[in-house]
Design a protein that fits this description.
The complex is a heterodimer. Chain A is of the alpha+beta class. Chain A is built from ten helices and five strands. Chain B has six helices and 21 strands. Chain B has a 16-stranded antiparallel sheet. Chain B has a three-stranded mixed sheet with strand order 1-3-2, with helices on one face. A two-stranded antiparallel sheet of chain B has the order 15-16. The two termini of chain B are 49 Å apart. Strand 1 of chain A pairs parallel with strand 20 of chain B.
């Protein structure tokens, strides 16, 4: 059999790592999806060199959830991204003692479960769904998928939330604790996690036509607001007046 | 008998008038619907016109598919004028409800299917049909692709649900209106590292121009979701992951003058298909396909057929639209029904193990069918073939280079085998020898089995 050259040449692999995440939300300077912003912030804190590629579909990721990282021809998702970043860049938690790490992990878990739940509740269940989430998630789809797909995601999200029902009070306790803990020292993965939530709560929920209980809780802690603003100014080069005004 | 036939022929011009047309045996069918079919008969004024007219009406009634029997009686009524007759159609309606179930089992695979047909639903020859099929780890599609294109791909584990409504556009079954609601799940992981959920709606008008030519115009609104990607899926497949909506208008025209669709000895087949997508939705393209075959018999022994297929897909960009062609829309080439001697979708652009499809393709084939000793020739034939083709991506900025690339490196295979008739399907078992292939093709040296209605 005669073998001849292929009719198609595979695109060359990019040497630089690419983080695939949801697009930057219109007028808000960053992506407003917690997982995406959390991982992006961690990579920035880690001084991990990467470029950002905007993707609309969770299905893109091997885990079925964005974000994911393409590095050396392989696509990583979830915790594997942080592991890759730690292996290739700087482990930003390395300076912490085992006790501090344990305490940090406990706080991270609190933030994820308590504040995360409340943010999901407001974005997916409350009236903010129609004014924010529906528009944000539907923007990349044509009619009528822009109305159907966010609602399907909403049903799924509510099912997940029904499985665990923490309440606002727990989020408030968590925020109180955080306001005492956070300081000016070198950022850790905890800072990445906290920043992702606080930034989105302050920025995204300010766009809603109705008051956000969760945002009100955060605004009660002035040091949390200052903390989020400081991280934004120090680590996000694209800081501009729009973002500053949104955080104020 | 000859004298009787002669008498009829001699009397064709005899003046005769139809007094009344009666249709007996209607239960669910609306009288006004049947009346619209029989009405033109009243115009007949000779015996010849009456005989031909009554036959044509009977053919039209049978074509509706709602009558089990249609018989005609020409009755001279003693109460009317001597040159008047009554035409009486006696019909027996077919059962309105027809339900079927079936199951197939094989080695590590199985499927079950159910169908429910509601015939003559509103009394005007409408049919409503619901079909449902579930497949478990099957290796072939459970539902033949609608456009018979080369884009049919083998799949593992598939299910299909469909609700179809058809009705004659006017009074004849030659012009039919069809509406379809469907939902399919397809597993392409063996070839393209993703699974696909497809649901949508199509509405079409089918016009039978003559006994062997069909014209069809359709509107399609199809929601596709590429999901459950394999961990090693290529970047191109990943970029096409997720939801897409195709809103398109398609048109097809076919002529089939072959004397037999399974073992043709003489005739030709031509089908052209165009689809324009971009009326809403987030994919926009213009797709054109041509499928042709010419067959000629020599010495009443061997039938030689030459076939050619080609297709081109132009991605279109409308202002304000999120334009893009997905892997779902691209052509695939290779496999027993398109290019023998290659694996399913085994020809053309490939990234790692994924066949990512192409925008421009052609395939040509030369095939000979001949009777075999001992085996009955109406059921089995010997077969030898040579076929070749190519599939490429199109670079819109350099169409000349894309076309050159298409013809520069064809993939070619030849072989010999046995062909069998199975109802309207053709089964082929061939020993294939790939002669030429690109380094990324998947040639299949050895035995290859195929089943279908259209082969290269």
């Amino acid at each position: 059999m005669l073998r001849c050259k292929p009719v198609y040449k595979e695109p060359e692999q990019n040497e630089e790592a690419i983080l695939f995440a949801f697009p930057v939300t219109k007028n808000l300077s960053t992506c407003m999806e917690v997982e995406c912003l959390k991982i992006q912030t961690t990579l920035i804190f880690s001084h991990f060199p990467f470029s950002l590629s905007e993707i609309h579909e969770h299905n893109f990721s091997p885990s079925g959830k964005l974000p994911c990282l393409l590095v050396d021809g392989k696509v990583y998702a979830g915790r594997d991204i942080i592991i890759q970043a730690a292996q290739r860049g700087l482990d930003i938690d390395s300076f912490l003692s085992p006790t501090q790490k344990s305490s940090m992990n406990a706080f991270k878990s609190q933030v994820e479960s308590k504040i995360g739940f409340c943010l999901d509740l407001e974005l997916w269940y409350d009236s903010h769904f129609n004014s924010i989430t529906l528009l944000q998630r539907g923007i990349s789809y044509p009619w009528p998928l822009n109305l159907i797909i966010p609602r399907l995601e909403r049903n799924q999200k509510i099912k997940e939330m029904m499985a665990s029902r923490p309440i606002y009070g727990q989020a408030q306790i968590c925020l109180d604790g955080l306001s005492l803990l956070l300081g000016d020292q070198q950022p850790t993965t905890l800072d990445a996690v906290v920043f992702a939530y606080i930034h989105i709560i302050l920025s995204l929920l300010s766009k809603s036509s109705t008051d956000s209980k969760l945002r009100k809780f955060v605004l009660q802690h002035d040091n949390l607001v200052q903390y989020s603003r400081r991280l934004w100014q120090n680590w996000y080069a694209r800081v501009d007046s729009v973002a500053s005004s949104l955080q104020s | 008998m000859t004298d009787f036939a002669g008498l009829i022929i001699d009397s064709q011009a005899k003046s005769i008038r139809i007094n009344q047309i009666k249709v007996e045996g209607l239960v669910h069918t609306k009288h006004e619907f049947i009346q619209a079919i029989t009405e033109p008969l009243i115009e007949a004024n000779t015996l010849g016109d009456v005989i031909i007219g009554t036959r044509n009406v009977a053919t039209q009634l049978r074509g509706l598919g709602i009558f089990k029997e249609v018989s005609i009686t020409l009755d001279a009524n003693p109460n009317t004028e001597p040159d008047c007759v009554d035409v009486v159609y006696t019909v027996v309606e077919r059962p309105r409800i027809d339900a079927r179930t079936g199951a197939d089992f094989g080695y590590n695979e199985g499927s079950m299917n159910m169908s429910l047909l509601f015939r003559n639903a509103f009394g005007k020859a409408e049919t409503i049909m619901a079909t449902s099929s579930y497949g478990v780890d099957t290796t072939t599609s459970l539902q033949a692709p609608k456009d018979e294109s080369v884009s049919s791909t083998g799949m593992q584990g598939a299910s299909a649900h469909q609700l179809t409504f058809t009705k004659p556009l006017f009074t004849s079954s030659d012009q039919m209106l069809e509406a379809n609601l469907f939902k399919n799940d397809r597993n392409h992981t063996a070839l393209m590292s993703y699974q696909e959920a497809v649901q949508g709606f199509t509405a079409s008008i089918k016009n039978t121009i003559s006994a062997n030519s069909l014209y069809e115009v359709a509107y399609n609104a199809i929601w596709r979701e590429n999901h459950s990607l394999s961990p090693n899926a290529s970047l191109t497949i990943r970029k096409d992951a997720g939801h897409s909506l195709k809103s398109s208008i398609s048109h097809s025209f076919s002529i089939d003058t072959r004397d037999d669709t399974v073992f043709p000895t003489v005739g030709r087949y031509l089908r052209v298909f165009q689809e324009l997508a971009g009326f809403g939705g987030n994919v926009s393209f213009l797709k054109n396909e041509l499928n042709s075959l010419y067959v000629q018999n020599f010495n009443n022994f061997i039938s030689i057929s030459g076939s050619m297929r080609c297709g081109v897909l132009f991605p279109l960009s409308f202002e304000g639209s999120n334009s893009g062609v997905r892997v779902n829309d691209r052509f695939q080439l290779g496999g027993p029904n398109s290019l023998r001697g290659f694996s399913q979708s085994g020809v053309g652009p490939r990234e790692s193990k994924d066949s990512i499809g192409g925008d421009l393709y052609y395939g040509v084939g030369l095939s000979a069918l001949f009777p075999l000793p001992v085996l009955p020739s109406n059921l089995f034939r010997g077969h030898t073939f040579v076929n070749g083709g190519s599939l490429v991506r199109m670079d819109k900025s350099n169409i000349v280079e894309s076309t050159t690339n298409l013809f520069a490196n064809p993939s070619v295979a030849a072989g010999v085998g046995l062909v069998a008739r199975f109802t309207n399907f053709r089964l082929e078992l061939n020993y294939c020898v790939p002669l030429r292939a690109t380094t990324t093709d998947l040639p299949k040296h050895g035995f290859q089995f195929g089943i279908g209605m259209h082969f290269m």
